[in-house]
Amino acid sequence: MLIGHQPKEFLLAVEALTVSFDGFKAVNGLSFYVDENEIRVIIGPNGAGKTTVLDLICGKTKATSGSIQFRGKELTRMKENEIVKTGVGRKFQNPSIYDDLTVFENLEISYPRGRSVFGALTFTRDAAVRDRVHEVAEMIFLKDRLNVNADLLSHGQKQWLEIGMLLIQDPDLLMLDEPVAGMSVSERAKTAELLNRIIKNRSVLVIEHDMKFVEDIAHKVTVLHQGQILSEGTMEKVKNDPKVVEVYLGH
Ligand code: ADP
Ligand code: MG
């Protein structure tokens, strides 16, 4: 299947991936490869299949055919919770935070269970959780909001909190579906800064429409159209590709 590639080189290798909904191929023979420590952005017109690609990777939707290898493990045969445990975190378009809990509590309940050494004293674990919550709160610009109820946060802060709830689980691949939609210009810039900082230890797969934001974060861009790759490469290459201008950027 892999032609000219060693599978171990990539964090994520998607190959010949297809999903058919009643005969309609929302994703059609798609192949792409994401490196360690890479920020990849998927762009493309509405209905191109972008969200469906994330659904397939996180196991929410089952592939009709093809393969998704993550660190050499075949994700298409795994359940959603097993995929999370393997190190894939996914943020949906609408934030799924607990409005009636504080920022601290939202982060605390997202801390993975059973990670501490067996038999460790409760207070040792509590201290580890508290330290990690503070560390993540700082990363997501909410260290001064730890005791605030989540429903009082701005739209942008809610998006950051949800990113924090994924970060606290320390995923190797973080997937975000339109994370800056509805954000202010300054919130968008801070989100770009956040993503550029967190890839020290992981890769990020982002769907986004905001071209300024894409330019600020993307190492490589994959342009999807009708479930297939229209163009792929640096932002510079992709935005000057006549096919991309015709079906997407020109509108
Ligand atoms: P994008 O995120 O690029 O806007 P989507 O991945 O949401 O596009 O959708 C791609 C196409 O697949 C659309 O035509 C959509 O209606 C269709 N689709 C997505 N999910 C399903 C589903 N579960 N059942 C049937 N059709 C679906
Ligand atoms: Mg979508």
Describe the structure.
With 251 residues, the protein is an alpha/beta fold. The protein folds into two domains: 1-87 and 173-251, 3-Layer(aba) Sandwich (Rossmann fold), CATH 3.40.50.300; 97-170, no CATH class. Helices cover 35% and strands 24% of the residues. It has nine helices and ten strands. It has helices at residues 50-58, 80-86, 103-110, 122-139, 155-167, 185-198, 211-217, 235-239, 242-249; strands at 12-21, 24-34, 39-43, 65-70, 73-74, 88-91, 173-177, 203-207, 220-225, 228-233. The strands form two sheets. The chain has a six-stranded mixed beta sheet, with helices on both faces. Strand 1 (12-21) and strand 2 form a beta hairpin. The radius of gyration is 19 Å and the shape is globular. The chain starts with 11 loop residues before the first strand and ends with a helix. The structure holds adenosine-5'-diphosphate and magnesium ion. Magnesium ion is lined by residues 50-51.
